[in-house]
Structures are given as structure tokens and as C-alpha cells.
């Protein structure tokens, strides 16, 4: 496009809240290792250590909704993953703010695989309906492991309907893996990749892989950063594809709209594509 459209930083979005502000409520001093769990400087799991042991010893007693949010289990996240395999009564699991890294994400992926293999209701495999992995330290490697497990064989349906990956470190490669999974998974109805630094390539991959089954879904790409001065043709082609698949009136999921893509107005994508088409 002549002159292109301006770069749209997520911090300008209405109601923007920084990562630091979101984490401040539950975060304590810790050390980050790229691709690994966040390791507490004092103790492994702090005050929740004994509760974690009890939970992992008796996963059969987990409730239908279990929350470990803010426990900062870090490297002990693998223990929770092992327990997940046996928690037959749990359908909604919250592991946000737990300091999980790629190793833990891979263990969780294996737990989901085991759950899908051992639990079956009609044509649907598995018992988990919702999994919250937001506000951790999961990079592309961990995202790829999760995406692989959630990619079903033809005519196979998994139980998981909601996956929250907000505020991790997916990057473009992680978003690409998730997008390819989305194209084949007919069960997921809500997925969040907000605050994941997915960039141009990531959002193009996500939106280009939406299918007819996503017409009633919610896909959150808000609070990422895109540069419309680059990849003009790719943006336009993606916009044309997603508009055709979902319908022009079914794109915008912001501010109470019924559309699919949350963050649509925030990106300024529609305006950028109009300008490209007129150039």
C-alpha cells in the first residue's frame, strides 16, 4: 500500500493492561530460564508444597473444576501432568501462573494424549473440556507439543473445547503450529494467543487456517504487535480468505460483538487491507 498503514502497538488498545500488571497480583521473585520452567529462588512450590503433594497422590479425588492458579509449581508441573492422566473426574483445569516451561508443556501434552486414549464418551475422546495455561513460560517447542497432541486423526473428536495460552512465548513458530492444529481440530471453540508475540507471520497463519467449524468459535489474537508496512500481499490474501470462510459480518469479536476474532478492531487489519487493495 502507498505509505502503508501505521504500526499498531498493543499498548494503545483501549483497556490495555501490561504483562507486569497482570502478573503482579500473584508473582514472587523468580528466575526465568528460556524454554524451561520458572524456578523459585526460595523453595520449590512455597506454601502450596504440601497441598500439591496431596493433589498429585489422589488425582482420582479431583473435582470437576480444579485450579492450581498462582501455585507457581514450576518444575513440579510434571507431577501435575502425571496426575492429570488419572484425574478422570476433572473436566476443567486451570494451570495459569504456575511457572510452567516447555518441559512441563510436553508432559501436559502426554497427559492429554493418555486421557484421550483412555476416556471416551460416544464419538468424543477424552474428559477435559477446558485447559488454562495462561501466564507461564511456554515457548514454541512446548506449543508444538500441545498442538501435535490436539491434532486429531480424520473423523476423530477430542473433548477439549477451550484452550487458553495467553501471555506465553509462542512467537510465530508456536502460532503456526497452533494454527495448523486448528485447521484439523473440529472441537475447539475458544483459543487464546493474546500477548504471545506472534507477529505478522503468526496472525496470518492463525487467520488463514480458520475453517467453517470456527464460525461459532472465539479466537483471541489481541495484544500482539503487527506491522502492516510488511507482507502487504499476505495480509490481503489472508483477509480475503478469512472473510470468505467466516463471513464479513462474523469477523469482529471485540466489545461484545458476536464475531470470531477477538482483537480484530485492535489490529486495524481491515483498514490496512482496504488501503492495500486501493494501492
Structural notes for this entry:
With 279 residues, the chain is of the alpha/beta class. Helices cover 37% and strands 11% of the residues. It is built from ten helices and twelve strands. It has a seven-stranded parallel beta sheet with strand order 3-4-7-9-10-11-12, with no helix packed on it. A three-stranded mixed beta sheet has the order 5-6-8. Strands 1-2 form a two-stranded antiparallel ribbon. Strand 5 and strand 6 form a beta hairpin. Helix 3 (77-84) runs parallel beside helix 4 (102-118). The protein is globular, with a radius of gyration of 19 Å. The model is unreliable at 1-35 and 38-45 (pLDDT under 50).
Structural class of the secondary elements? alpha/beta
Radius of gyration: 19 Å
Helicity range:
25-40%
Uncertain residue ranges: 1-35, 38-45
Largest beta-sheet characterization: 7 strands, parallel
Number of helices: 10
Order of helices and strands: HEEHEHEHEEEHEEHEHEHEHH
Query: Largest sheet, order of strands side by side?
Result: 3-4-7-9-10-11-12
Task: Tell me the β content.
Answer: 5-15%
Query: Averaged pLDDT, please?
Result: 82
Tell me the number of strands: 12
| Net shape | globular
N-C termini distance? 5 Å
